[in-house]
Amino acid sequence: MKKTLLIAAVAVLGINANAQEFKFGPKAGYSLSMLKATGEGTTYKFDAKSTFYAGAMAEYKFSDKFAVQGEVLYSPLGGKQEEAVAFTEAGVNVTGTEKTDWKLGTVQIPISAKYYATENLAFGVGLNVGVIISAKVKSTLELSGSALGEAFSESETTTTDVKDNMNKLNLAPFVGAEYTLENGLFFDARYNLGVSNLAKKEDGENGTLKNSFIQVGVGFKFGGN
Q1: Would you list the DSSP string of 143-204?
Q2: Phi and psi for 113 in degrees, rounded to 5?
Q3: What is the pLDDT of residues 164-193, one digit of tens each?
Q4: Which CATH number do you get for residue 56?
Q5: Fewer CB within 10 Å of terminal CB in the chain, N or C?
Q6: Is residue 38 assigned to a domain?
Q7: How far is it, in rounded angstroms, from Cα 221 to Cα 4?
Q8: Where do runs of H (alpha helix) occur along the chain?
Q9: Range of the structural domain that residue 85 is part of
Q10: Is the pLDDT of residue 207 over 50?
């Protein structure tokens, strides 16, 4: 009886040891960033902005099915706007476009809990803690018209630092999925829902600015038991 219990105990310890794994490695990919602003009862949607992310991850798998993962990433998020411009000055009709590009340099620290549906396929939920380290708005005004029978066009670009007008913390709960190959190469995708108001509230103002984003990437896991 004692011998049987000893064999069973050794087997259980062996299973637990095999189930516990620590892996780490680089990851990078594509981000589709979306800004949404509200103010005075109106919602303003920005055009989605294509950008990237890059950094590193570490995963601790404490059973065959469950794991936790932490990451440190950098991504220049934001959004874009394009508006038509039309006015008359000194009897001259002027038309054009004004393009605005919001660039939010963000360090992200995603923390997630993962469930392995199979040995290779995992689903995760977590919280992406973003810290905005730079915030700039690039505006390009392109105008054209005709004066005295001659056509003209002009373009002007300005960049404004708006970091002092932004809250630095961008919290974004996320859901996602990951598929890992036998050699350690993995692919993942996530949707991050921005819930933090990035706009500092001025006196008498109650507007909001929120940043959500999709991430699709690739990486490599080193390590093992």
Answers
A1: EEEEETTEEEEEEEEEEEE-GGGB-SEEEEEEEEEEEE-TTSEEEEEEEE---S--BPPPTT
A2: -105, 135
A3: 999 999 999 999 999 999 999 999 999 999
A4: 2.40.160.20
A5: N
A6: yes
A7: 38
A8: 2-19
A9: 22-224
A10: yes
